[in-house]
Amino acid sequence: MVRVGVQNEGVIRMKTPEEYKESLRKMRPNIHKFGELIEDVTTHQATRRTIEGHAQIFEAARNPEYEELYTTTSCLTGEKVVRYLSIIKNAEDMINNCRMKRLMFNLTGTCTGGRCAGFNGINAMWAVTYDMDKEFGTDYHKRLRRWLEGAQEADITLAGALTDPKGDRTKSASQQADPDMNLRVVERREDGIVVRGAKVMICGIAAANEVFILPGTGYREADADYAISFVIPKDVENLTIVEARHPSDTRAEEEGFDNPVDKGGITQAYLLFEDVFIPKERVFMCGEYAYSMKAVLNFIAPYRSAIGGCVAGQGDLMIGASALMARANGLSEKVFKDKITQMAINNETTFGMGVAASALGKLHPSGVWIPDMLLSNVNKVHVATLPYETKRIAQDIAGGIAETGCLPSWKDLQDPKYGDLLKKYLSANTDGETRARIARLVEWLTIGAGVPGCMHGGGSQDGAKMMINAKAGIERDIELAKRVANIKTDIKVEPRKR
Asked: 185-237: per-residue pLDDT in tens?
């Protein structure tokens, strides 16, 4: 690992892209897909593109044009580190997080979730461990600090995992017929804990060196064994990882424009824990159920703020691809002015809401900045809706060649017998291959592997609406209305009897 930077302005601890890939090659293979053990995630068809996408973070952090967004000064060492391994100290840090996520989508076309969820996990538990130590006299915060110093020194890539299988949604974790439906402690030792269960639908695991685990929801005393947080190497013993299939897997098997963004791709995985041992120094919560929901809330505040930048970043690409297709068809993009304007409005709505939530946050006594909970959840609702309108408009402008699936494969376009004829009949205001590449990009961005988890990434919009209802303060608004109208009467409504 090399050190680069300006003298007297700190040091950037940063791997090169190749050093990053080599760190993954050195790990024990434990990722499977289609019944196959993936020996090298950096070259395998199922995982290569997500690695390439994450590698661009290392490129960007070493680029003077992007250094401000991708690096920051560590509050632990005073040295420059990659932002993904830092503590969010103030509103400016959080806004730069939003800007970084937007730029990352600009560069890759899709999600690099093998870093953002882990980043949020660090910041969520930074506050929670501080509070637990203050109440219980534990040393969780010191453990987290020591681990983070080592993570910054090694410049690891850190994924994050919250979601449990859950089982029957009407029952709590301890009430499930199968107790493993939520990740739990099965043994406590002097030197650590043993856990069993699963985390599911976890983004970017193939690209990570380590995984930060958080409780999946708020727990009660009966569920104390499920209130756990820790960090593990991705290749820890007794952990099996299974990559989920994607609807575009068949298309993605081909080369050429069937993979229009060679340096980007999204992967989701299931993490199967079969009595995994976690050393004590890597455990940051174990049974403190009263703090489990605080961990979740501290996670979703920055996540739901910054994801507005993510979808805006991909929306930028959809605008560009739509305008390109209009020109390829011989039309000025001005023909679609109103539609493209609406796409831009959608982008800036989610980005702007994320920035607002960041700016109106509060500083926790531990030193971490927590975005405004109400606005971050409002942003989540927008993220679950507006990007789909942007995708629809992109398909509308691009036409059937990009939306209906009626696009010949790369191999067919290169076929010596009929490839030239296909290119001939695909041509318009540009050659057929170029027009096909544009169409494939729109397809990839709107219905293919480039689609991020807008609807459920970071939680559902229904869950966000519950938080909005809790935070919106309707009683305060009622009192405001009464004051303006000079109403003294206290109006009550009796609950209906069932």
From this structure: 999 999 999 999 999 999 999 999 999 999 999 999 999 999 999 999 999 99
**Counting Cβ atoms within 10 Å, is residue 8 exposed (0-12), middle (13-18) or buried (19+)?**
exposed
9-291 is a CATH 2.60.40.1180 domain? no
Round to whole Å and give the CA distance between 116 and 308: 13
What is the dihedral sign for C-alpha 16, 17, 22, 23?
positive
Show Cβ contacts of residue 201 under 8 Å, excluding neighbours closer than 6 positions: 163, 244, 268, 269, 270
| Interaxial angle between packed helices 113-136 and 48-61, expressed in degrees from 0 to 180 and rounded to the nearest 10 | 70
Query: Residue 12 belongs to what H/E stretch?
Result: strand 12-14
Q: Which of 308, 303, 315 is nearest to 355 (CA)?
A: 308
Cβ neighbors of 15 (< 8 A, separation 6 or more) are: 1, 23, 58, 155
Q: Is domain 294-474 in CATH 1.20.140.10, yes or no?
A: yes
Taking the mean position of all CA atoms in its chain, how far away is CA 253?
A: 24
The residue among 293, 303, 339 whose CA lies nearest residue 453 is 303
Q: Which amino acid is at 153?
A: E
Q: Where are the domains of the chain?
A: 9-291, 294-474
What would the two tokens of residue 171 be?
A: 């029952």
Q: What does pLDDT average to over the chain? A: 91
Q: How far apart are CA 19 and CA 155, in angstroms?
A: 10
The answer to whether 209 and 57 are in contact (CB under 8 A) is no
Nearest alpha-carbon partner for 132 in 122, 117, 142, 123: 142
Task: At 414, list the tokens.
Answer: 């290169």
Query: Is the CB of residue 50 less than 8 Å from the CB of residue 265?
Result: yes
pTM recorded for the entire structure: 0.90
Q: Does 294-474 match 9-291 at the fold level?
A: no
Contact yes or no for 449/248 (Cβ under 8 A)? yes
> What secondary structure letter does DSSP report for 364?
-
Distance CA 203, CA 46 (A): 14
CA distances from 31 to 250, 325, 465 (A): 19, 38, 36
73-97 residues labelled b (16+ CB within 10 A) or e (exposed): bbbbeebbbbbbbbbbbebebbbbb
For 82-140, what is each residue's pLDDT tens digit?
Answer: 999 999 999 999 999 999 999 999 998 888 889 999 999 999 999 999 999 999 999 99
Classify residue 417 by burial, with Cβ atoms within 10 Å: 0-12, 13-18, 19+: exposed
